[in-house]
C-alpha cells in the first residue's frame, strides 16, 4: 500500500519534450522541500543527477542532484524530436511508477507529459492517454480526470474522443459513474459533502429542449436520482456562466460534458499552474497540465510551475491535505 512518508515517483515522460528541463528546474527550485525521484534515463535530464538504486535513497540524494532510478532508454535525447526507440521505455517508466506506489515504496506518482502518437508509432501504445493506461495498470475501469488549480477544479465527463461522439458517449450510466467517483474522491480529501456543479452539453443548457435534448433525456434524470441520495448537485448549468469568480465560489468542483468545456476555463485561469489528477485509482497520480511542447524543448524556456504544482499536490494528497 502507498505510504505518505515515501518520496514521490516521477516518470520522465517524452524525453524529446520539455519534461527533462522542467524536472531539473523543479529540483533546483524545490530544494529539499519535497523528496521525489525520477524513473528514466539519467543522461536525458538537463541538470545534475544522482543515480539511486532504491526510492528510499531519494531524500539524501536530493541534496546533490535529481535522484534518478536509472533506466536505459537506448538512444540519446534529441530536444524537439520524439524517437521510436524511446517509446517502450517511456511506457515502462509509467508502469514501474505504478508498481512502486502500489508496493509502498513511493507515496504517489507524478507523470511528466507523454507524446501519444510517438508511443503508438514506436510501441503500438493502445491507450488514448495516460489516464486510460493507468486505469489498465491499476486494474480498474472507472477513472476520472480532474484538472485542479487553487481557483478551480474541473472534471470532463468525456475525454479524448471526437466532439461528434460525445452525445452518444454521454449515457446516464456513464455520467452517474463520473459524478459518484468525483464525489467520493473529494470526500476522501476532506470535503464532507462536496458541492458539485454540472454543466449542460448544449448552449444555454439546452434551453428547455429548444437547443438539444441531452439535458432533458440524460443529465437531469441523473442529477435528480443522485440528489435523492443526498449529493449536493447544481445543474445542468449553462457552461458560459459557470466559471466567473462569483459562480466558482458556489461549488467545489465542476463536471463538464467534454474535454474543452473543462480545460478552456482552467487553462485560462491558471495556464502554468494547473494539475491533472486521476480520480478512481487505488493510488495518487498527478501530472502537469501541459504537453511535451516540442517547439520550445531545448531552448531553456520551459516553465516548471505546473510540474512543481503537480509534485506538491501529490505530496499533499498523500498526506491527506490536498485536492
From TrEMBL:
TM helices/strands, residue ranges: none
Reactions it catalyzes: 4-(phosphooxy)-L-threonine + NAD(+) = 3-amino-2-oxopropyl phosphate + CO2 + NADH
Amino-acid positions noted as binding a divalent metal cation in the UniProt annotation, renumbered to this chain: 160, 204, 259
GO process annotations (BP): pyridoxal phosphate biosynthetic process; pyridoxine biosynthetic process
Keyword field: Cobalt, Cytoplasm, Magnesium, Metal-binding, NAD, NADP, Oxidoreductase, Pyridoxine biosynthesis, Zinc
Binding site for substrate: 130-131, 267, 276, 285
Pathway of action: Cofactor biosynthesis; pyridoxine 5'-phosphate biosynthesis; pyridoxine 5'-phosphate from D-erythrose 4-phosphate: step 4/5
Domain of life according to the entry: Bacteria
Main localisation: cytoplasm
Alphabetical list of Pfam families matching this protein: PdxA
Oligomer and partners: Homodimer.
Name of the featured protein: 4-hydroxythreonine-4-phosphate dehydrogenase
